[in-house]
Amino acid sequence: VCKYGGKVLGGIVNGIVIAIFNAIYKKVATTLTKWENHRTMSSFETSLVIKSFLFQFVNSYVTLFYIAFFRPFIKIDHMGGFFQAQGCQPEECMTDLFIQLLSIFGTQLLLGNFKEVVLPYIMARIKMRLEEKKILKTGQTPQPLSRPEAESKLGVYPSTFDDYNELILQFGYVTFFAAACPIVSFFALLNNILEIRVDSIKLCRSLRRPEVGETDNIGAWRTILHVMNIAAVMVNCGIVLVTSDTFSDDPADYNYLSIPNRFLVFIVAEHALFLLKIILDLAIPDVPAAVEEERLRKDFKTRSFHKERVHTAEHERTLTEDQMEEFEDSDCYMSDEETAAAVTHPMLVDHYGIAK
What is the pTM of this model? Predict the structure, then answer.
């Protein structure tokens, strides 16, 4: 118990240190990106995402990669001192990897939820308390704040960067080391279900109303997810063939597999998984057919509505007042309400082949 308790405590401390250095480097990366003086906000965000992710990738996963791919090759029987303490047998390396992953992952989840909900609320209360003390020093009585005044004391929602960054790092913990700790994906699912409520509380109660921004996609995060998918396949194949005790190094064992044969199995396995990934990408569309059909139908309605309004406006400008009165009394004139009703008529929709 003491042996594993020490490893859990070490994982928790490691998770706290990772969170601290991630926060520090985010500020450094933001400052460096501002100095680059990007012309557009999209290029600024792309540069910031790349800088932050490269550092946080190393900072968040270096311990786990070390346990998985370096410790098994340290010969504990022939080295003393530091190296003797760092080496491990395959089954021990998998246990250490399991403990470290769960400890770091759990610590990151708790710190993230605390930073998103509890910390902004505490800071807002401290700010309001300090302002009340300033009013009391002047000899006045603090008046109850209205809702807009109270919301103005809340923190500002900076951007979606932190939300995406949290999910990307969580995605790495789940996919990179799934072979060593499959249960972490279950904990990630529970956290994401809880995250729905946490984000709603953060946006509705802990922070001010965020500013609305338009975007076509998630930007550089999509490329990062694609790269992490490819890397996760190779990492998990390496864990099974190198770190785990699935295959033995002793020729006398029944599960013996030489290093060249392991490399061959690694190439075949990761290529087969890549092929399966490509097949799934082609078989499952990014946008479901029903959603695409609904989007086309709404686009058709919008274009027809604006086209009819433009046609009616151009015709009205060519008429005199007497002709305009005669035109409005005729069956050819359509008001805005009639135009909107016409473009949604079932016969018109069926005529253009758009599903209802």
Answer: 0.72
